[in-house]
């Protein structure tokens, strides 16, 4: 398999591991003015750690959002499945900090390691600035936030979207590619992380474009699908089936015919939703996940989890992955615990999921679920997941794929270090071979 990747996020600037002084760390922040650097240093000197870290974090997120916005707000909406985001939307209101980091990783603006560290910093900020925080931001946490902000965003001389990605997207929409094309070979042999982005671009075009762009997108979808189908995650396959349903319902006969031909090549019609009920579940699950990663999440989670739970006990198959991910995120919580009101609701709904569906999740989904994998790198997340499985007698599966079985066994055996190691490996494998 080729190790060539279409685009790759930078690993950030090199800051020696032994540097812990804020003054030294901030000296690497080339994207800040001298006055801005001095403000952070001064705040630290008077032990206003919250002020210093919040200022650095906001500067970093503003820079990252401005970078992503250069691709156009409509495209951003397409990438995250938000049709309400158009060219008139503003980046600040459209993207949360967590979604910004996720999107930056997917677009090759930051590396997988950088994304993990920034997500943890986001978790720290979210916790210490929430209503539920019982303690103030400490020196070590503040240094961690500032260092991640500088290393992966504020220290980069230029974190503009990789030229390779922009050119690649244009080729997908403006050319009908051939199998012998070197870049097609790169696509076929790329990790799921990149295949997911390719499918997002092509499906967004099938919904929104007309004329030559639509024809090129459909031709490229049909060219690629037979070669990448087995590498796609279950949620990605459902997205293709959902796109077919949407364009058919909209009366877009060209797009409908093109996606239908693609699905016929891979026997993919099992992934076409039968009705609109699943859309309601998927949207409610998305709101739960978004709330989970925002400020005051423990306070705000109960209402959105209740809303998802109130939709019914039987989750439609197309929405199962989204709902399980949302419920697991709330139930597993973060390094600072769980929402006292929301976590029990999530636990109850997870306990209602059948053994057959749990096997499906553990067999076909968990190794590609970056949200849950990141939760399992926490000892508290691994322990809570084990308790959930054991309590519901989902603790005796033996026929899972090798990596999934090893992770599952480590969870059931309460081997926290091994759970961490396997989860981190699988998380990185989503992006890298």
Radius of gyration (CA) equals 22 Å
Q: Residue ranges: pLDDT <50 for 5 or more in a row?
A: none
Mean pLDDT: 89
Secondary-structure element order, N to C: HHHHHHHHHHHHHHHHHHHHHHH
Structural class: mainly alpha
Q: What is the CA-CA span between the terminal residues?
A: 9 Å
The largest sheet, given as strand count, sense and whether it forms a barrel, is: none
Provide a descriptive summary of the structure in words.
- The protein has helices spanning 22-26, 34-45, 49-69, 73-79, 91-94, 97-106, 112-128, 139-154, 163-174, 182-188, 192-208, 211-228, 234-249, 253-266, 277-292, 297-309, 320-332, 342-351, 355-364, 370-376, 379-391, 402-412, 416-431.
- Helix 15 runs parallel beside helix 17.
- It folds into three domains: 22-154; 166-271; 280-431, no CATH class.
- It is globular.
- It has 23 helices and no strands.
- The longest helix is centred in the N-terminal third of the chain and has 21 residues, at 49-69.
- 66% of the residues lie in helices and 0% in strands.
- The protein is an all-alpha fold and 433 residues long.
